[in-house]
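Incident log, structure service

09:12 report received: a user says their structure output differs between two submissions of the same chain.
09:20 pulled the input from the user's history:
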Amino acid sequence: MQVPSLEKEMGIETYITQSHGIGGRIRQLLDDFVVEELLVDGSLAEVSPPVTTWEPFGEGRYLICVLVKRRWDTLLAVREVAQRLGVSQKRIRIAGMKDTKALTAQHISLQGVSPNRVSQLKIKDITLYPQRFSKARIYSQLIQGNRFHITIRGIPHPPSVIEERTKNVQDEIMSMGGVPNFFGHQRFGTIRPNTHRIGRYLVKGSVEKAAFAFLAEPSRHEHPEAREARGRLQDTGDFEEALTLFPGFLRYERFMLNRLTKFPRDFVGAFRELPRRLRKLFVQGYQSYLFNRFLSERIRRGIPLNEPQVGDYLIRLDEHGLPTDDSNQVTAQNLQMMEEALKEGKICVAAPLVGTRQPPSEGLQGEIENEILETENLAPENFKLSFMPEATAEGRVRAILNPVWNLLLEEISADSETAGNQMMKLGFTLNRGSYATVLLREFMKPQDLIEAGY
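09:34 re-ran on a clean worker, output below:
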């Protein structure tokens, strides 16, 4: 089944299911894509507060709140909250990034901020409501996963066909124990899928090329004003002129341009105008691209995702079924024992996010990875960035199969937004670090990602 060329640019080169898709479009309305963060203790960040008044409970120096946002980049939302509260961003912690083009709810911890100040905060398309006090701040390991409620619109099939195709895909996914744990479309950007290419330049030490890839490479899918401004900078290399032309909504780009107008050759300094987390995301984006290629080729060669092979990495799962930092490799001697542990739900098969401390696999999977690294002219030690140590990537292993929980076809009905078509609502829960679009693409089989709302 043909995969869109835009996905191939992200290293996603195949489907795991063979059933026909339903087509359609996601994110036609903002509230069609709802994400609610779930913690390991069962706490759910809901997009609508469960109560209208807040009764304080718990104890500790941190106020745990739920941040609900629409149309906001997560890092920019945190920055805005900090500025409005008059506190340092260092006193605010989040557990994970959430989609910009969605209605999302996530946990956030505030240090030294009263519930009254939070309740009085007024920011367009952001709501912050207190939940409890805690002795510990929020961090990523507290996340179990995310609950999704997705509306797919503009489906050009009758309800009976939609239901049949959806069930067929669902059956395939359940029989395999999940979907490939690809890094999804938002990790790279769909309008401008270049995060990993910026990371590639940084890993290769080409900081100037990385800066121009971020600032000056236009995409035909982005806003015309942004496209024209980027194209002009690409032609002229004039940072001062670019600062007058780049629209205000390109905030990260303008941060860099402000630096480059004063110090035109200080490309490292320009990157340091961006949030530290974003700088590292570029390099991690390149790791993610390589991982996707490793996984795509494993699928293409027919090597199972849920059966350990000699040379594979394995990760131990914790009591919540989440991957831990404890990993080892399959050998001919321990293969049978590892197969039994996998059947008992104690471990899962993994592949590397290659980095300074994470070499490729061995065996069949290792052959795949080394072939791809050779085509990239890359070695694990290249991920040490001496000029920007904070973006160095040590690497780790990542599960290659993503389990899907509570998968439910919630509704099929006439689509009020596109006459003559149907809409479908799908609900499901994914473990942390997983991407809803990776699951949705199996149901939709989109051929034009932009048209399909990705």
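09:41 both user submissions now match this output. Likely a transient worker issue. Closing.
09:42 reviewer note: The mean pLDDT is 95. The radius of gyration is 23 Å.
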